């Protein structure tokens, strides 16, 4: 099953200083409305032509939604999915500076989805009955300019993707670390995050220029035999904006081209997987990102995408393309 949520962050001080107005609003639990700031409200001829467009999602959050609210609505159920031996994926999507990393990692005072999910996972393992033995391991990688880097051990250099006999895409030689509690996972994450490729852009001081993929595997061994494992993938995508918005030149521009190429490939896979698609072929091989997400998008995984936008009138084009992308993702049918 796949679900798409949308989160609108609060207006930033920079946006308010520019004189931006809020044009994106959450109308109810599922509907977000975006108004085109260019159309003149006093234009009588266009009065009937609605300047507002509604987009419907599985869940919508505005700036009043807490990290806890977003976690409970989007990710909490996935912990049970993984401890019962299935796969689950959460990914954050949207332009730079719209709160993707905040949702995923949060701050010390307002922890994000990763911290909360890990806490819940280890609590569930502690509370489980004694006839199942659990082991949790994790890997953390980034995809930057179409190369895969191990964030837990960057000295490994560029890693290759391999497909095993069952069709699952593996990262050859990646570090798998066992973890015994949530704090340990968060320390490893913090260390890996410090190694993540970040550069200042006009849109964000510490913009993530790479896609980061945390993979947590829960191995279960039942007394008297059976082995099972479930994966939880938590993915913080790089910003989806156009170059003009970040005023990128040179190296930043080249990174942007790679980021956009992988997000375009993701969009194409989503398009091909959606209800209305007549084509049966889904081209996962167009980018490293879509190859890694193959199981999450079309295979046996519960998938949640959380798209992020800014409510500001100055971000209208970015917000519109994010809403369209996320809306399209809503019509994916995964087969669990």
TrEMBL record:
<dbReference type="GO" id="GO:0005524">
    <property type="term" value="F:ATP binding"/>
</dbReference>
<dbReference type="InterPro" id="IPR019821">
    <property type="entry name" value="Kinesin_motor_CS"/>
</dbReference>
<protein>
    <recommendedName>
        <fullName>Kinesin-like protein</fullName>
    </recommendedName>
</protein>
<dbReference type="InterPro" id="IPR001752">
    <property type="entry name" value="Kinesin_motor_dom"/>
</dbReference>
<feature type="domain" description="Kinesin motor">
    <location>
        <begin position="1"/>
        <end position="332"/>
    </location>
</feature>
<feature type="binding site">
    <location>
        <begin position="94"/>
        <end position="101"/>
    </location>
    <ligand>
        <name>ATP</name>
    </ligand>
</feature>
<keyword id="KW-0505">Motor protein</keyword>
<dbReference type="Pfam" id="PF00225">
    <property type="entry name" value="Kinesin"/>
</dbReference>
<keyword id="KW-0963">Cytoplasm</keyword>
<dbReference type="InterPro" id="IPR027417">
    <property type="entry name" value="P-loop_NTPase"/>
</dbReference>
<keyword id="KW-0067">ATP-binding</keyword>
<dbReference type="InterPro" id="IPR027640">
    <property type="entry name" value="Kinesin-like_fam"/>
</dbReference>
<dbReference type="GO" id="GO:0007018">
    <property type="term" value="P:microtubule-based movement"/>
</dbReference>
<dbReference type="GO" id="GO:0003777">
    <property type="term" value="F:microtubule motor activity"/>
</dbReference>
<comment type="similarity">
    <text>Belongs to the TRAFAC class myosin-kinesin ATPase superfamily. Kinesin family.</text>
</comment>
<dbReference type="GO" id="GO:0005874">
    <property type="term" value="C:microtubule"/>
</dbReference>
<keyword id="KW-0547">Nucleotide-binding</keyword>
<dbReference type="InterPro" id="IPR036961">
    <property type="entry name" value="Kinesin_motor_dom_sf"/>
</dbReference>
<keyword id="KW-0175">Coiled coil</keyword>
<keyword id="KW-0206">Cytoskeleton</keyword>
<dbReference type="GO" id="GO:0008017">
    <property type="term" value="F:microtubule binding"/>
</dbReference>
<keyword id="KW-0493">Microtubule</keyword>
